[in-house]
């Protein structure tokens, strides 16, 4: 459990964003920075550590025994425009070593968008897992996906299926899952078969995580509504205020490729910015993930408030109450290392100016 939790923490990919700051007064719904820090119950010493560039923790509640939640705050000594540039460069995907491949998905999606999806590392071993797929936690698949991979094996001579054919079917599966989410949102996410008639609904997990963004609901209710009702909610919000991006990732977890579908949304709300990342599919090891960051320009730089929520069976069940604090303690240093990368990268760009 300890080793796997550390790996999951490494997957909390650095979430950056861009915001446009104007000289206008804050809208009534935008809280002062001090108000937000008070809501997080940060002490005066924590606030001083923030000014010194330290990354501090704040407590984020957890909704189920499967959910692992972390909250952090830190200051980046740069301007919002520089953060925007870092975000659009995809720094997180480039700097996190376990992400071995990634690609952007465009519009309705196509198999060409997933051309870079391969069974690496250990292709033969992973292909065998898919060809022998069954309900459980070895792979996150629905009943039709399991049937399709097993049919591929049954239709070949002596079960000898080239890795390339498994990869082709995997690309089709990822494309179908992307299209279902993009057209129906959380309700379009197919469940994972766990066996004995049990299913895990990642859409329900993400809905809960989204509802737990209570400060977003309070201070940016329109954007929160967009998140809850995506994609219908997006049509109700002015397009210039919200941007969205889709990606696929291949993440190496202890020699196994993990395929992840990512939806990022960026909201420009007056003097502060909000970014949400949903990992609405992961092929194994965890069920789903939601990450959020709010950015507040200050005299000292940009204050970033982070929350991360991952649904994983590894912290559920017997002994859950003991697993959670241990897992949070293991996960936190991985995330802080990623945020230190952001702080360093921002300082580099500032020195170039």
Mean pLDDT: 81
User: What's the number of domains?
Assistant: 2
Question: What is the number of strand segments?
Answer: 10
The named CATH superfamily of the largest domain: START domain
Strand arrangement, largest sheet? 1-2-10-9-8-7-6-3
Order of helices and strands: HHHEEHHEHHHEEHHHHEEEEEH
> For this structure, what is the CATH class of the largest domain?
Alpha Beta
The CATH architecture name of the largest domain reads: 2-Layer Sandwich
Chain oligomer state? single chain
Distance between the termini: 46 Å
Helicity level: 40-55%
CATH topology of the largest domain: Alpha-D-Glucose-1,6-Bisphosphate, Chain A, domain 4
Overview of the molecule:
- The termini are far apart.
- This protein has an eight-stranded antiparallel β-sheet, sandwiched between helices.
- It has two domains: about 1-110 and about 200-350, Alpha-D-Glucose-1,6-Bisphosphate, Chain A, domain 4, CATH 3.30.530; about 120-195, no CATH class.
- The chain is globular.
- The protein has 13 helices and ten strands.
- Helices cover about 40% and strands about 25% of the residues.
- The protein has about 350 residues and is α+β, with helices and mostly antiparallel strands.
- α1 packs parallel to α13 and α7 runs antiparallel to α8 (about 165-185).
- A hairpin with a 2-residue loop joins β7 (about 255-270) and β8.
């Amino acid at each position: 459990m300890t080793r796997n939790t550390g790996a999951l923490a490494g997957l909390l990919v650095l979430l950056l964003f861009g915001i446009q700051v104007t000289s206008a007064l804050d809208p009534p719904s935008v809280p002062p920075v001090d108000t937000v820090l008070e809501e997080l119950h940060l002490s005066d010493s924590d606030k001083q550590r923030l000014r010194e560039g330290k990354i501090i923790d704040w407590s984020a509640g957890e909704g189920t025994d499967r959910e692992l939640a972390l909250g952090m705050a830190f200051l980046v000594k740069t301007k919002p425009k520089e953060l925007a540039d870092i975000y659009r460069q995809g720094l997180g995907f480039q700097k996190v070593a376990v992400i071995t491949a990634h690609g952007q998905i465009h519009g309705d999606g196509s198999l060409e968008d997933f051309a870079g999806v391969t069974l690496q590392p250990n292709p033969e071993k992973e292909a065998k897992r898919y060809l022998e797929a069954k309900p459980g936690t070895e792979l996150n698949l629905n009943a039709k996906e399991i049937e399709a991979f097993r049919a591929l094996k049954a239709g070949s001579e002596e079960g000898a299926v080239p890795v390339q054919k498994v990869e082709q079917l995997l690309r089709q599966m990822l494309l179908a899952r992307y299209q279902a989410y993009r057209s129906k949102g959380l309700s379009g996410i197919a469940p994972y078969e766990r066996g004995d008639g049990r299913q895990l609904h990642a859409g329900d997990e993400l809905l809960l995580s989204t509802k737990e963004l209570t400060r977003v609901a309070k201070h940016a209710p329109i954007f929160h509504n967009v998140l809850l009702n995506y994609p219908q909610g997006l049509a109700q919000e002015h397009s210039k205020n919200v941007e969205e991006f889709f990606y696929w990732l291949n993440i190496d977890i202890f020699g196994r490729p993990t395929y992840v579908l990512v939806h990022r949304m960026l909201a420009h709300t007056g003097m502060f910015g909000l970014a949400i990342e949903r990992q609405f599919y992961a092929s194994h090891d965890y069920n789903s993930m939601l990450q959020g960051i709010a950015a507040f320009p200050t005299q000292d730089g940009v204050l970033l408030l982070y929350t991360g929520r991952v649904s994983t069976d590894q912290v559920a069940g017997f002994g859950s109450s003991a697993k959670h604090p241990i897992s949070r303690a293991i996960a936190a240093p991985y995330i802080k290392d990623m945020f230190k990368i952001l702080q360093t990268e921002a300082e580099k760009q500032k020195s170039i100016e």
